[in-house]
Amino acid sequence: MSQAPNAKPFIFNNKFDTGFLQSMYDDDFTYIQEVFTITLDQLSTDLPVVQTDFEKGDIASLKKSVHKVKPSFGYVGLLGTEQACKDFEDLCGTTSDMAVLIAPFKNLWALLHESKDLLIKELTLLETHNKLN
Amino acid sequence: MRCVIVEDLQVAADYTRRCCEKSGVLEVEAHFTNVADALQYLNLHPIDIIFLDVEMPGATGFDLLDQLAYKPEVILTTSKPEYAYNAFEYHVVDFLKKPFTYQRFTEAIQKLSIKKVEKEESPSTTPSTHIFIKTDGKLVRLNNEDILYIESMGDYVKFVTAEKKYVTHNTIKALEEKVNKDQFMKVHRSYIVNLSKIDDIRENDLFIKGVEIPISKAHRSEVMKRLHII
Predict the structure, then answer these.
(1) pTM of the predicted structure, to 2 decimals
(2) Which residues of A touch B8 (CB under 8 A)?
(3) CA–CA separation, B227 and B216 (whole Å)
(4) Domain boundaries, chain B
(5) What backbone phi and psi angles, to 5 degrees, belong to B21?
(6) Class of the B2-121 domain?
(7) Complex ipTM, two decimals?
(8) Interface of A with B in 79-118 (CB under 8 A)
(9) pLDDT tens per residue across span B71-108
(10) DSSP element (H, E) containing A20
(11) What is the structure's pLDDT at A91?
């Protein structure tokens, strides 16, 4: 948010919503790096909870843990992943049958990991960019 | 203006703090990741504004508002738009859906400033000596001095006088705003009492005409302050 005066632009992977990141952080790439770092740290705590809740078959807890990870993806500009979390959260609210959730959960789980891996790669690139600029 | 952030997501709390700092008008006094810690602090250190998340471990942001002994301005920060109705019920200043932009944040702060000015400019009114309640298909006048206490019954409340009990459709939360604050005080989420009718206080309960009324932990210090203890 505190715009770095001579910062060279960083080109984000197209999975990230650049316009949204710009509206949140301007071109403060140092702060974006910090946001990515904190988010990855948070996900390392929150994602295992999602997995545990799924394995327990506890739909109410699963809904809550997915709700918890949802905004993390929003803050890093992965709005598609954030929306997928919301869709799954909504689905949890419509059923008491865990069997209904198995396939959607597998898709979500794959997307969450794909997004996390993407974030790790992007953070590495961003760190390099920030060191050079 | 002094504010506190109650938010369990670190990245969201940091972002809100930065927005506050950038605004130049908000000083972040503390950040809490759960309701219990926030309540303990807020009841000892009254502040102007809370940036409040809703879903947190243990208790919700609304639980915090229910248990707080005073009413600061509140800006809700949540990723669930479904809470908008509750936000309206709790008279919050604004509802920020996470993640929000700085532009959206400044709009919330503008609303806050307008509300503050309106409060300051509103003419002081003489506290009313009575209220009218709708019960049994008519409006009944109750003089403040006749009301012993008001008790919650879900979506209804019971006005208790020495002579009679009146049930009407209302909530303690809504009434708290409407009763004469010099005379009445909320002592528990389910009770508003007429301070002049308290006969005695023992531990965490007060007694009015033999009826035992609980005092919640959050309200206890404020109740003690309001009594004329020699």
Answers:
(1) 0.70
(2) 68
(3) 16
(4) 2-121, 130-226
(5) -65, -40
(6) alpha beta
(7) 0.87
(8) none
(9) 899 999 988 888 888 888 888 999 999 999 999 999 99
(10) helix A18-25
(11) 97
